[in-house]
Amino acid sequence: MDDFDVVVAGGGAAGLNAALVLARARRRVAVIDAGDPRNAPAAHMQGFLSRDGMAPARLLEEGRAEVAGYGAEIVAERAERIEAGFAVHLASGRTLHARRVLVATGLRDELPDVPGLRERWARDVLHCPYCHGYEVRDRPLGILGTPHLGLLLPQWSADVVFFPHRTELSADERERLLARGVHIADGEVAGLVVDGDALRGVELADGRVVPREVLFVGPRFVPRDDLLAGLGCATGEDGWVRTDPTGRTSVPGVWAAGNVVDPRAQAVTAAGMGSAAAIALNADLVEEDVRRAVAAHRQVAGTLGAPASAG
C-alpha cells in the first residue's frame, strides 16, 4: 500500500534521522531519496561525534540500512510535487499518500563565475573552515571575495591571501583583514592554476599568479524548496521558508528540516533538526489519533446508552 503516516522528501542526514525516530515510534514512513546529496563530492565530513572523518556516502548508506531495518520504506526516486492532503507525486508516476510530510531536500551551492571552481569543488576549493580547516592547516590558503572567511581562516594558517575579485572592500574591512595578518591581492580573478590534479595558484586578470594550495569560497546558498513553495509555505524576508523550532511550517501538517530551511546546518545539525521534527510530527499524529479515538468512543458509548426501541 502507498499510504503512510509520514512521507519524508529527502534522504540526507535530516530526512533519514527523522525517519529513524518515526520508524522507531512505529509509524509507517517512506523516505523519497533522489540520490544527489549536496555533500556528494566531499571525501569526508568532520565535526560529527563518532562519525568524524567518515565519508558522507557511507553515512547515508548506513543510515538507509538502519531506517529500513525498522520497517521504513526507502524509495529511490524524486518527489515532483506534493498536493494538499497529502499526495506526494513521484517522477515515475507513483503517488504516495501521507497524513503528514517532512521536506528535507537541502540546498545547492551556486559558485562564483570563475573558471575552474566547479571542477575543484570539495577537493581544494572549499567553503567551510569548520568542515575542512583542520585538514588544510598551515598550508597556503586563499579566500575568494568573502571577508568574514578572511577574518576566520588565520586560526588555521599564518599564510592567508584574500582575493577581493569583484567585492568592494570598505576601508574598515581592509584594515581588519590586514590586522589579522591577511594579505590582500587586489584585482579580478581570471581562473585557477592546476597542475598534477592539484591547485597550485590563483591567476589574476593582469597575469599575476599567486601560489595557493587551497581556495575558500563563499557560495550562494539556494534552497531546494520547490515542494514547500508548491504547498504555499510562508517565507521570511530573506526568502527562506519559515519554521518554528521543531521545523513546523505555516502549512498544517508540513514540516521542513536541514539545509532546505537553514543554510548553516552541517550534517550533525541537520540530523538533530530531523530528530526534533520527527518528535513533533509524532506528537501531532498522536493528537489526531486521540481525537479520532475519542470520537469513536463517544459514538460507541452513545449507541450502548441509547434506549431500546419499543417493539
TrEMBL record:
Keywords tagged on the record: Flavoprotein, Oxidoreductase
Record keyword Oxidoreductase present: yes
One Pfam short name: Pyr_redox_2
Membrane-spanning segments: none
Chemical reaction(s) catalysed: [thioredoxin]-dithiol + NADP(+) = [thioredoxin]-disulfide + NADPH + H(+)
UniProt keyword Magnesium, yes or no: no
FAD/NAD(P)-binding domain ranges (all copies): 4-272
Listed name of the protein: NAD(P)/FAD-dependent oxidoreductase
Source organism per UniProt: Pseudonocardia adelaidensis
